[in-house]
Amino acid sequence: RRSFARAALKDLVDFLFQEDLGSNLEQRASDSGRVAIFDATNTTKERREWIRTSLDGLPLKLLFIESVCTDPDVIDRNIWQVKVNNEDYSTDSDKKKAYEDFKKRIQNYEAVYQPIDEEHLSFIKLINCGKKVEINNIHGFLCGRIVQFLTNMHATHQTIYLTRHGQSEYNYQGKIGGDSGLSLMGEKFAVALAEYCVDTLTKDPETNAPRPCRLWTSSLQRTILTARHIPHPKVKPSVGGTNMTYSTEKNKDWIQMSPRVLRNLDEIYAGVCDGMTYEEIEANYPEEFALRNENKLGYRYPRGESYLDVISRLDPLVQELESYQEPVLIVGHQGVLRLIYAYFTGMDRTEACNASIPLNTVIKLTPKTHECDEDREVLYVPTKADLGAIVEGDERGGGVSPTAADGVSGVRKINPFAANPEPPSY
Predict the structure, then answer these.
(1) Is 71 helix (H, G, I), strand (E, B) or coil?
(2) Do the strands 214-217 and 328-332 form a parallel or antiparallel pair, or are they unpaired?
(3) In whole angstroms, what is the distance from residue 284 CA to residue 305 CA?
(4) Which end of the chain is more exposed for a tag (fewer CB within 10 A), N or C?
């Protein structure tokens, strides 16, 4: 075991400083922003001191994280949900035997366990899944952010629902950005989304009873208009239910899907290109168009934003999402939802820029210990009449007009963007 631990610790150091070979480590200090996790029990003071002395002299910060759980219900749930169903027991049909095995493992660790209380070490102690948090000797930005992140974590499964706004007028016209309203097809999706929320999202899947749910939108009107049909009745959540992060107010009524408007959820700002089609961008800013194709993740529109900029402004919202136990519906935009989707599914951020987030679809994410369950449901499929092919034998399509006023004018518009479920891509 000790030889394996030494090998793992060497790999850890190599990872932290692999780009510093031949450079001055002391000059660089510990500003790389890299974090390595040495995954081991480290239950004794002797073991923790061995780690400290092994890393002593290197320009890094050592932080121990200890999780203490005294709640038997949480322990049992964790064993059944995480341990029993892992690959160690993939061929063992006797789940009860696996459960008893892990209970014995806990007892064996208890026999040698020495709680961390060394004042010269930096540590975070999480008690009963963050109900109580103790920190010691914490200094610096990165360690502080780790503390902030861990205090928002919990051991229950939450569900996050992602959906784009209904088709907007700019979607219809093939333009990016702006703050346009909904097209007729976008309005039909808004109605379908409200029905989905009433019939499915706000009901407990097992009891069919009302369950508390949250609703987030951006500050742009196309997301607000998409969510405006969702009702907001007052419900009385069951006391002691698992989906309650408001335990101090559990006797109060919960306003169902109370809308919360967040500017951090606004779409990537396209700067001088806002309101243009991609053809217009290529014609007016050919160099910018080429740069974006070369590096979609890091490319920043002139006087606008990049995907990396959006990651920075989404960071506090993602941490807040991690703290919730109630289901959350986010009515957002393609670029922003791509990044949220990538975070919870573990997708590399370079791939996130092209993740599929189609219109008229709800993506249900349930993050778990080692994976993230994903389900997609299309709520609205445009008919031929919706797309404008209302004359028998006329298959030109072309789509409805973007507004009701245009829709009754009798003018048919041929529009290749109208039937596209993913128009256009930031």
Answers:
(1) coil
(2) parallel
(3) 18
(4) N
Spatial distance between the Cα atoms of 356 and 423, rounded to a whole number of angstroms = 11
Catalytic residue among 169, 187, 266, 267: 267
Task: Identify whether 165 is a catalytic site residue.
Answer: yes
In the set 69, 129, 282, 406, the catalytic residue is 69
The one-character DSSP state at 247 is G
Six token digits for residue 398: 């072309």
Active site residue 267: yes
Annotated catalytic residue 69: yes
pLDDT, tens digit only, all 426 positions of the chain: 888 989 999 999 888 887 655 455 554 544 567 889 998 888 899 999 999 999 998 888 999 999 888 888 888 877 777 667 666 666 556 677 888 888 888 888 888 899 999 999 999 999 888 788 999 999 988 888 899 888 887 777 789 999 999 999 999 999 999 999 999 999 999 999 999 999 999 998 888 889 999 999 999 999 999 999 999 999 886 654 444 444 445 567 899 999 999 999 999 999 999 999 999 999 999 999 999 999 999 999 999 999 999 999 999 999 899 889 899 999 999 999 999 999 999 999 889 999 999 999 999 999 887 789 999 999 999 887 777 543 333 333 333 333 333 333 334 344 444 555 555 566
Residue 94 class from Cβ within 10 Å (0-12 exposed, 13-18 middle, 19+ buried)?
A: exposed
Structure tokens at 23: 């450079």
**H runs (alpha helix) in 153-277:** 169-173, 184-196, 221-227
Q: Is 143 assigned a catalytic role? A: no
Helices (H), 121-182: 141-151, 169-173
- Per the structure block, which two tokens stand in for 64? 């121990």
- How far CA 297 is from CA of 324, 334, 354, in Å, comes to 29, 14, 10
| Cα-based angle 9, 81, 211 (whole degrees, multiple of 5) | 125
Query: Per the residue annotation, which of 26, 31, 39, 287 is the catalytic one?
Result: 39
List the catalytic residue out of 143, 165, 197, 305: 165
Token digits of residue 16? 């932290």
Residue type, 118: E
Cα separation, 217 vs 234, whole angstroms:
20
CA neighbours within 13 Å on the CB side: how many for 182? 22
CA distance 164 to 242: 28
Q: How, if at all, do strands 328-332 and 160-164 pair?
A: parallel
